[in-house]
Amino acid sequence: AQSVTQPDIHITVSEGASLELRCNYSYGATPYLFWYVQSPGQGLQLLLKYFSGDTLVQGIKGFEAEFKRSQSSFNLRKPSVHWSDAAEYFCAVERGNKLVFGAGTILRVKS
Amino acid sequence: GAVVSQHPSWVICKSGTSVKIECRSLDFQATTMFWYRQFPKQSLMLMATSNEGSKATYEQGVEKDKFLINHASLTLSTLTVTSAHPEDSSFYICSAASGTSGGAIEETQYFGPGTRLLVL
After folding, report:
1. Is A107 exposed, middle or buried (0-12, 13-18, 19+ CB in 10 A)?
2. Interface of chain B against chain A, CB under 8 Å?
3. Is A41's CB within 8 Å of B112's CB?
């Protein structure tokens, strides 16, 4: 069955440190992949998406993600985290022209 | 950027009453809007897809008579939870697609901030 797994419910990093949020999917073909961020009181915002081509995707706010077919992963990275990055992050996969979301990872940033 | 609003942000109601949630695209026209439901510590689950001027398409397991969706204009979709019960308590999120491809996955979805419903 199609699923999206975000293994980490919570992650805490220090401001200025690097960040990697994990996302794994179970799907036969190469899916369309997305990362969204949700800040308190705001709607989900698209950070980046992968449809095809270069497997390293650049997004907004300094985020990037790399699609690794062999690992069925689409991990989100940022080299230096800012306090404003504290939020909940959702990985999503396209299935039948619809979005299937992971359970989310809450990022806490400590100063 | 494109903005989607939801109203109300919070609603508490008694069991058996109906609740209407509005989703508006503020600065663009949305041919297609989506309604999601999110339980605590779980992912968003698509409930239905609505296209302006036509009936909504509901996902398997979602009761269409329980969750009434109306998409009467290109900027407004409403979700009415009829005869609400405590198990309907949840976080309801809408999104709007800005393109003209009927909500094709290539179109960016813009999400509202969500409505938290508590049924007593």
Report:
1. buried
2. 4, 9, 41-46, 49, 93, 95, 103-106, 108-114
3. no
Half-sphere exposure of A30 (CA within 13 A, CB side): 9
Element (H, E) at B34: strand B32-38
Query: pLDDT tens digit string along B25-78?
Result: 998 888 899 999 998 878 899 999 998 888 899 999 999 999 999 988 999 999
| Spatial contact of A4 and A25, defined as CB atoms under 8 Å apart | yes
Strands A24-26 vs A3-5: parallel, antiparallel or unpaired? antiparallel
CA-to-CA distance for B1 and B76, rounded, in angstroms? 18
Check if the beta carbon of residue B43 is closer than 8 Å to that of residue A95: no
Burial class (CB in 10 A: 0-12, 13-18, 19+), A53: exposed
Cis peptide before A79 (omega within 30 of 0): no
Q: Say if the Cβ atoms of B111 and A32 lie within 8 Å.
A: no
Distance from CA of A80 to the nearest CA of B (A): 25
CB atoms within 10 A of CB A101: 21
